[in-house]
């Protein structure tokens, strides 16, 4: 039927049915096609404009986030004269404003130990275990005080690493701050150990050799055997701050002047460095002004989408989109509302002198000097801390034993009552009375296995050592357990103390998985008051938050899911009973939470974009259906016109037949 029907019939009505059918089909299709084209163009514009709205919200959130940082409001400035004694490396917002006079009297240095010489770097050194601990040697090198706060290590030397190079690499791999290197003195190779700087970061090495592969004992450096040679002792840095002498282990000092970090370079008995720290409120003021500008840019941008477009003079594509209006209205409501969770009357932008203009909804800053107590500059000068509280998230507790450590997007601002019904505790075990002091380990088997939480450490007191007090013995045992291969480098650790004539073992973890058990002992370990025993298990904290039973794990108490306090994390210290905690997201947190909810993968904008994309898919389906209906309509027209042409053709043939008869009948025939 693609050709003219008349041509196919060889005659007919003489009408150009092909053109006529095409015109009729186009007229029939046009309303639906125009409707689909208009709807598709609108949806595509809305997709694009929601992208613009997303971008405008993202830009606004960036300026809001700057306002939410405590560092923005706590910023400090520092001045220091040119000096060769020290250099400032960091100024934190926690620094306290004031003037400080600093003198450097001693630079920190590291202890270094050197081994005897070896013929080559890959010479064999024997096999066994080396226990490395940090602490402080006395001047005569005949007494070592272990520092139980420092991580030690037990280093295994076997067939895989029993060379000088292997030993070097194993010590470095222990990652306890001791650097091992091999140095050639021209005729032999020596192992050089360099500890961290500081007087209490000196090194003790105790070797347990494999009887079948001796040699490792040449790296002993302890009170019983010293086969390595000290090249230099460890020293602390010594400096005076406003006349007060302080010592630090390193030359990088970050806790002498709170919030100020410095590196020490040289010593002087005469030079004093004057350091001045001051408040820097310019950063906060700039951040507030930048936010006002960003918000006005946002309002002007979205007005083109939901209001009159300045370029086209027409309404934006989202003019009738209720969701877009809802998003913008929620942002405006946060601007106008008081900040939830803030205690006191100073709790809104309007009270800072930030006003909403009635004509266009933008913000302006009131700087009229006639309003001495309410304009922005006066508020910043007189109520700076309150301004900070409006913008920055705040957590507080009226009990030092209950601390708010975290919050989430689900946490709602407000005050909450906390009641502790079960104290958090740690697993522990107490021994019996020891045999007394001094305690000599010579020829004794003072070994035992202790299970701490989910790990078991096997230790043995070194042979030939004498302990003069219970405190010294406890420190030794604690260090050996924590430095052991099983616990070193993990989160599991133990505290050992000596009280009432007995050793006490306490896990450093809280909760029901915290425990201390002694699972085996050596032949003479009973002298230490120890036997195979099961200690007490720790407990998880338990309590309620606003009357709802909370979930406790160790020291952490989490409010019930679905409550207003959900997402707050509370650290409960031993002795806590009750507390009132306060939480405010601040203006920044409230606005950021709102915007991030809009921009999230499951947020309102993503949901609306998904609906629009589905509408576009539906339009494609509608076009397919329109094509089907159009083809059916065309086929119906062609069928009808074909029938018409057949009738016309039959009539034409009948007329010709009758005319022929007429021409042959008497009285009608043409003469």
Strand content: 25-35%
How many helical elements? Answer: 11
CATH topology of the largest domain: Alpha-Beta Plaits
Note the main sheet. Answer: 5 strands, antiparallel
- β-strand number: 36
Structural class: alpha+beta
Low-confidence stretches: 5-11
Gross geometry: elongated
Mean pLDDT: 91
Write up what this structure looks like.
With 671 residues, the chain is an alpha+beta fold. The chain folds into 6 domains: 5-65 and 603-664; 76-107 and 238-279, no CATH class; 110-235, 2-Layer Sandwich (Alpha-Beta Plaits), CATH 3.30.70; 282-391, no CATH class; 394-423 and 541-584, no CATH class; 426-534, Sandwich (Immunoglobulin-like), CATH 2.60.40. The chain is 32% helix and 28% strand. The strands form 10 sheets. A 5-stranded antiparallel β-sheet has the order 1-16-3-12-13, with no helix packed on it. Strands 19-36-21-31-32 form a 5-stranded antiparallel β-sheet, with no helix packed on it. Helix 2 (17-67) packs antiparallel against helix 5 (282-306), helix 2 (17-67) runs antiparallel to helix 10 and helix 2 (17-67) runs antiparallel to helix 11. The longest helix has 61 residues, at 604-664. The protein is elongated and about 160 Å long. The chain starts with a helix and ends in a 7-residue tail after the last helix. The model is unreliable at 5-11 (pLDDT under 50).
């Amino acid at each position: 039927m693609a050709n003219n029907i008349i041509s196919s019939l060889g005659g007919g009505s003489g009408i150009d049915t092909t053109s006529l059918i095409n015109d009729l089909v186009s007229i029939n299709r046009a309303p639906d096609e125009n409707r689909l084209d208009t709807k598709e163009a609108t949806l595509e514009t809305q997709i694009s404009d929601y992208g613009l709205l997303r971008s405008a919200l993202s830009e606004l959130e960036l300026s809001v986030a700057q306002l939410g940082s405590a560092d923005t409001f706590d910023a400090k400035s520092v001045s220091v004269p040119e000096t060769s004694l020290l250099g400032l490396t960091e100024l934190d917002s926690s620094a306290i404003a004031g003037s400080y006079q600093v003198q450097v009297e001693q630079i920190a240095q590291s202890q270094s130990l050197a081994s005897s010489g070896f013929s080559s770097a890959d010479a064999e050194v024997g096999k066994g275990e080396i226990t490395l601990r940090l602490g402080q040697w006395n001047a005569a090198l005949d007494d070592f005080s272990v520092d139980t706060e420092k991580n030690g290590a037990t280093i295994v030397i076997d067939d895989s690493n029993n060379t000088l190079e292997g030993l070097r690499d194993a010590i470095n791999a222990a990652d306890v701050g001791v650097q091992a290197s091999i140095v050639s003195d021209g005729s032999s190779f020596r192992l050089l150990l360099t500890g961290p700087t500081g007087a209490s970061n000196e090194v003790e090495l105790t070797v347990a050799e494999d009887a079948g592969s001796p040699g490792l004992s040449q790296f002993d450096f302890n009170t019983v055997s010293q086969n390595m040679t000290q090249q230099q002792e460890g020293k602390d840095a010594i400096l005076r701050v406003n006349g007060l002498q302080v010592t630090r282990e390193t030359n990088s000092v970050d806790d002498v002047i709170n919030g100020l970090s410095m590196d020490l370079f040289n010593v002087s008995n005469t030079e004093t460095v004057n350091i001045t720290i001051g408040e820097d409120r310019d950063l906060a003021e700039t951040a507030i002004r930048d936010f006002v500008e960003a918000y006005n840019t946002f309002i002007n941008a979205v007005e083109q989408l939901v209001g009159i477009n300045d370029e086209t003079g027409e309404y934006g594509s989202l003019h009738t989109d209720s969701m877009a209006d809802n998003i913008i209205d929620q942002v405006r409501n946060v601007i106008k509302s008081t900040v939830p969770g803030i205690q006191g009357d100073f709790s809104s932008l309007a009270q800072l002198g930030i006003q909403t203009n009635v004509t266009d909804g933008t913000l302006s800053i009131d700087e009229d000097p006639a309003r001495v107590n309410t304009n922005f500059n006066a508020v910043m000068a007189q109520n700076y801390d309150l301004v900070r509280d409006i913008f920055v998230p705040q957590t507080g507790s009226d009990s030092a034993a209950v601390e708010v450590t975290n919050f989430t997007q689900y946490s709602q601002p407000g005050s909450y009552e906390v009641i502790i019904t079960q104290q958090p505790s740690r697993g522990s075990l107490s021994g019996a009375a020891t045999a007394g002091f001094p305690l000599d380990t010579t020829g004794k088997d003072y070994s035992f296995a202790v299970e701490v939480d989910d790990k078991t450490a096997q230790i043995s007191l070194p042979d030939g050592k004498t302990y003069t007090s219970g405190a010294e013995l406890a420190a030794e045992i604690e260090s050996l357990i924590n430095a052991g291969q099983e616990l070193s480098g993990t989160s599991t650790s133990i505290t050992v103390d000596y009280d009432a004539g007995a050793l006490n073992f306490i896990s450093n973890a809280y909760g029901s998985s915290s425990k201390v058990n002694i699972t085996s002992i050596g032949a003479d370990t009973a002298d230490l008051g120890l036997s195979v025993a099961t200690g007490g298990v720790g407990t998880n904290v338990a309590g309620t938050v606003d009357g709802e039973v909370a979930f406790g794990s160790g020291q952490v108490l989490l409010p019930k899911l679905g409550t207003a306090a959900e997402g707050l994390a509370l650290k409960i210290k031993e002795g806590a009973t009750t507390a009132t905690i306060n939480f405010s997201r601040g203006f920044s947190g409230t606005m950021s939470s709102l915007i991030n909810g809009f921009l999230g993968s499951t947020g309102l904008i993503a949901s609306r974009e998904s609906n629009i994309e589905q509408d576009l898919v539906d339009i494609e389906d509608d076009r397919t259906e329109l094509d089907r209906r159009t083809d059916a309509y065309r086929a119906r027209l062609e069928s009808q016109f074909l029938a018409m042409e057949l009738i016309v053709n039959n009539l034409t043939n009948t007329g010709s037949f009758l005319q022929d008869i007429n021409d042959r009948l008497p009285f009608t025939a043409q003469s």
